[in-house]
Amino acid sequence: MREIVEVLVFVIIGIILIWVGYALFFRMGIPAFGGMRGFRLGKRRANKNERAGKAGDPQICPVCAGKLDSGQLVSSLAFPSLNGGNDRFMHIRGCSDCLRGKRERICPVCNKVLKGEEILICRLFERTLRKPHVHVLGCTTCKGPPSKR
User: Fold this and answer.
1) What are the beta bridge partners of residue 88?
2) pLDDT digits (tens, 9 = 90+) for 88-145
3) Which of 59, 98, 129, 142 is buried deepest, with most CB atoms within 10 A?
4) What is the pLDDT of residue 39?
5) Is 72 exposed, middle or buried (0-12, 13-18, 19+ CB in 10 A)?
6) Which among 101, 127, 126 is positioned nearest to 114, based on CA atoms?
7) Nearest alpha carbon to residue 113 among 48, 47, 76, 64
8) Do 126 and 86 form a contact (C-beta atoms < 8 A)?
9) Residue ranges per domain, the chain?
10) Which among 122, 125, 126, 131 has a CA at the least distance from the CA of 55?
11) What would you report as the CA-atom Rg of the chain, rounded to the nearest whole angstrom?
12) Which has the closest alpha carbon to 113: 124, 102, 105?
């Protein structure tokens, strides 16, 4: 009978410790263990050039910041990876509207108006189970070769 009481006490103590650990690390917000916004950085604030989008919204051209129609593509060129990893360099020229001159082509980094042959220099990160991510580094003037700066 005494052994059953001891086992029951240990089970109750174990349940209490599990509950306290869960409440402490996951509910109260210790960031190292994923509490509250532990692994998230929160919502990104949109600056004047960025627009917050929702799932299913049309994509936005990174050069002219215009919404793309369904089926409309951005002219880009992705180079092979130099180190065999998941990231590679990419050049973006723009969508058909900004290449024809309907919209003004602006660098999202330095806010300079791009001329005819200037491009955006980007990094393309290919991720498993998710869409690829493009990070714009700048235009040929602000991030180009040192000889052109």
Assistant:
1) 124
2) 999 999 998 888 888 899 998 888 898 888 899 999 998 888 888 889 999 988 876 6
3) 98
4) 42
5) middle
6) 101
7) 64
8) yes
9) 2-33, 74-148
10) 131
11) 25
12) 105
| Amino acid 56: pLDDT | 65
Spell out the residues 6+ positions from residue 91 whose beta carbon is closer than 8 angstroms to its own. Answer: 76, 77, 79, 119, 120, 121, 122
Assign residue 84 a region (left: φ > 0; alpha: ψ between -120 and 50; beta: otherwise): left
Nearest to 108 by CA among 134, 89, 69: 134
11-68: per-residue pLDDT in tens?
999 999 988 877 776 665 555 554 444 444 344 444 444 445 566 667 888 898 888 8
Alpha helical stretches, state H, the chain: 2-22, 96-100
Which residues are 78's β-sheet partners? 90
63: DSSP letter: T
Residue 8's identity, in one-letter code, is L
pLDDT for 147 equals 58
Q: How far is the CA of 125 from the CAs of 78, 107, 111, 134, in angstroms?
A: 11, 20, 24, 6
